[in-house]
Amino acid sequence: MPFAEPGTTLTDYLMGAQALFYACLLYMIGRRETSVLLWSVAMLDVAAAAILGGTHHGFNQDNQISTLLWPITVFLFAYLSLFMCCGAALSSVRNPARRIFLAVFVLKFLGFLLFLGTRKELAFSDVAWDYIPALLVVLCFKLYSKYARNERDPSANWIIIGVLVSIVGLIVQAIPFGDPEGWINNNSVFHIVQMFALHCYYNGARYMRDI
To answer: Which class is 6-205 in CATH?
Structure first.
């Protein structure tokens, strides 16, 4: 069966394989660091979302099973934001501020799940309401860790670059171009940009240390 959207599907699958590989590496690297393990779970989340999203785009979208995959993909982004923010907090700020941030992230996560539950039809734009603020939170944590903390944070530069690349990717994704049923379009280019971001996130996360 040919893919309905080959460019989007194959780049989704490539991103899923990359994220799964990084998730395994981070798990092996950071078994004693909760922050690294959280980013490992975040990579696993990306892998699942990419594979499900690619399957949704690649095969008959009127099929009942394919239709069910998209809401699951969108909900996975809520977990992604939670794991990224909590991992960044654990490696950037100390208690008692850290406990407050973690509580806020959990409440944000629950609030976003409720928001998604009120939507009749889910679109990628719904993800932006949670994912973009999460990226900015991670960026702020690592900027603080880089410039305000007395201790050197070797993860900061990589994570900062990763966030900036992710934002560029979201801008690309928001501007429709190309043929959705072809090889080059805003979705396939977005996935390629995100693969560069994942590389940065992996290189940053492997140097994270709980403080």
So the answer is: mainly alpha
